Amino acid sequence: MAESGEGLGTVPEHERILQEIESTDTACVGPTLRSVYDDQPNAHRKFMEKLDACIRNHDKEIEKMCNFHHQGFVDAITELLKVRTDAEKLKVQVIDTNRRFQDAGKEVIVQTEDIIRCRIQQRNITTVVEKLQLCLPVLEMYSKLKEQMNAKRYYSALKTMEQLENVYFPRVSQYRFCQLMIENLPKLREDIKEISMSDLKDFLESIRKHSDKIGETAMKQAQQQKTFSVSLPKQSNVKFGKNLYINDRIPEERNEIILKHTFEEEDENEEEVLTVQDLVDFSPVYRCLHIYSVLGDEETFQNYYRKQRKKQARLVLQPQSNMHETVDGYRRYFTQIVGFFVVEDHILHVTQGLVTRAYTDELWNMALSKIIAVLRAHSSYCTDPDLVLELKNLIVIFADTLQGYGFPVNRLFDLLFEIRDQYNETLLKKWAAVFRDIFEEDNYSPIPVINEEEYKTVISKFPFQDPDLEKQSFPKKFPMSQSVPHIYIQVKEFIYASLKFSESLHRSSTEIDDMLRKSTNLLLTRTLNSCLLNLIRKPHIGLTELVQIIINTTHLEQACKYLEDFITNITNISQETVHTTRLYGLSTFKDARHAAEGEIYTKLNQKIDEFVQLADYDWTMSEPDGRASGYLMDLINFLRSIFQVFTHLPGKVAQTACMSACQHLSTSLMQMLLDSELKQISMGAIQQFNLDVIQCELFASSEPVPGFQGETLQLAFIDLRQLLDLFMVWDWSTYLADYGQPASKYLRVNPNTALTLLEKMKDTSKKNNIFAQFRKNDRDKQKLMETVMKQLRSLVNGMSQHT
């Protein structure tokens, strides 16, 4: 029952499968057949059975169908056989017609093939034309690029490359020639960079070589502008620096700096000074900057340019070792620096970012420190004031030029004050030589004038006023010697020379006045004073010359007020102004006078010593000659003549010199008596010596120099007089009795001096002892001498103990 049930279930399923097979495309039968195998195990056999049954049914139906249509088929065959004959005829006709058509169409085919071939060629030509029209602009632009490269128009070439890359190459990128062009562009860019950099290097080298010409041009134009500003003070606010505009254009045809004109030395009738734009072509810088900007490598170019310019700055700032020897050395140094910074200032203003204000300020500060150090070092070697003055003028023009370009130059003017001190030192050395020459050429005698013209000539050189001298008739003499007006003139020349340095320093009249007075004070107190002191100490300067020097210094001292008026007239600064420096001529010439006075005293004493050394006493003579010694009379005559010259000296100087001479003479005579080498002195020698002292006293009483009161001058010989009186009178009792009393007659006689002289006389008495023992008076005198000597020794010992 179970099997029969399963069999009944599968029959409809097989029928459905058969229906699908019959109705479905043969390509989709596979899934249907697979479902047969996926069914029950015996389903395949049953399906086959069912399929066989279905085939048999269809065969039966086909057979029925054929039996039904067989007669019609037969009829159709019969009809077809009838048509066969007609078909053969038709075939023959068709073949003949076809032959005729083929024969007739051969020419058409040939012409058609020609037409087709022409059409293809025409289409190809059209395509080629279209492609060429697309490629030709690219080729033309590339050819233009080559021409620009050959013409060294590199900036335009870079622009052309940009157009090729952005516009033209994308249109023809599928072609091989385009790829070759694209691959060649980076190499061309590198070539342009190298070439432009090479041009820049040539530019930098040329700029370095010709910086002095550029700087000289700028400095001359600055100097002209300064002169113009002085002549037109109302337009003094015009700045010359920014008038040096430099050509902004970028010529494509040139790739190196060209110095367009050779700078000649400026003559009085020279044409207008060339400006910097007339001298320099900056196209290599502009071109290189634009090229690197287009290539996007502007920073590399900036770094390279700044680095190279810093190296050049160090070279420019390095001076030559002998720069200090000539002004041309300094001028070349300054013009190179100015040329360097004029170029940098132009680059700053006409380019964006290549150099910045911070960069130029840093470069200038570095350069300024180096410049100041160099000038400070090299100027210290300068010994010629004219060279120092020219250096100062160069520094002023240098500073004014760069200040016009906006560079701070205050430190340069501060340096000028240091150089001013050195300039004053060189002036002082120069004027020291001038003063020495004046002193060497002076005859140290009053200036004689024989007529009014000569008198006015001297007055015009030196401010001398003396009503008494004016009243005198010609010929007459000025009290000073020829050196006085010469020195006065040279002091004024020194003031003029010192004033020259103060010009153009942008200082007030008060400061200039102060500088002039201080430098003049240095000239008076140091240079002139030193020359005077050296002159006074020279061995060949005698007493007459010293007297004249004192007179000269007196008149120079009086002339100092005229020098102050002279400075006042120059600076228009009143002497009554607060803090105005005064001239120190008073102290200067007073010191010189004191030195001259001291030298007079010294030389006078030396002269006295020379006369005293001529003394030739016979210390053992028994009787005096009855007249004074010849050396002493010569000495007194010399002193009389000298003191006659002293009448032109101030009273105190002459009196001091006279008193000093008398005291020195008295001391020399006393030392002659007490000389340790002198062993014996006779009374006759004492009497002869007394005659000489009497002449000295007569000289002192004759008032060789006016102004002494009473017997003041004679007191210089009081020690000798009392000593000689004591021995001449042999008044020992009075001396010993009154010793130590204020009213003593022999108050100025020292016991030691008396004892020394007495011992010398005792030695003389011993020589005559053989004969003296037979004379009672001599024996008594001998005993008295021994007694006196004992008492004198006791006084000397008492004095030493008391001391």
UniProtKB/TrEMBL annotation:
Q: What are the record's GO terms for cellular component?
A: exocyst; plasma membrane
Asked if the keyword Protease belongs to this entry, the reply reads no
- A Pfam family of the record is EXOC6_Sec15_N
Family from the record: Belongs to the SEC15 family.
Q: What name is this protein filed under?
A: Exocyst complex component
Q: Which InterPro entries match?
A: EXOC6/Sec15 (IPR007225), EXOC6/Sec15_C (IPR046361), EXOC6/Sec15_C_dom1 (IPR042045), EXOC6_Sec15_N (IPR048359), EXOC6PINT-1/Sec15/Tip20_C_dom2 (IPR042044)
Q: What are the alphabetically sorted keywords of the record?
A: Exocytosis, Transport
UniProt cross-references to PANTHER family, sorted A to Z: EXOCYST COMPLEX COMPONENT 6, SEC15
The entry's function note states: Component of the exocyst complex involved in the docking of exocytic vesicles with fusion sites on the plasma membrane.
The chain positions of domain Exocyst complex component EXOC6/Sec15 N-terminal read 50-219
**Record flagged with keyword Transport:** yes
Q: Which organism is this entry from?
A: Phyllostomus discolor
Where would I find the Exocyst complex subunit EXOC6/Sec15 C-terminal domain in this sequence?
A: 412-760
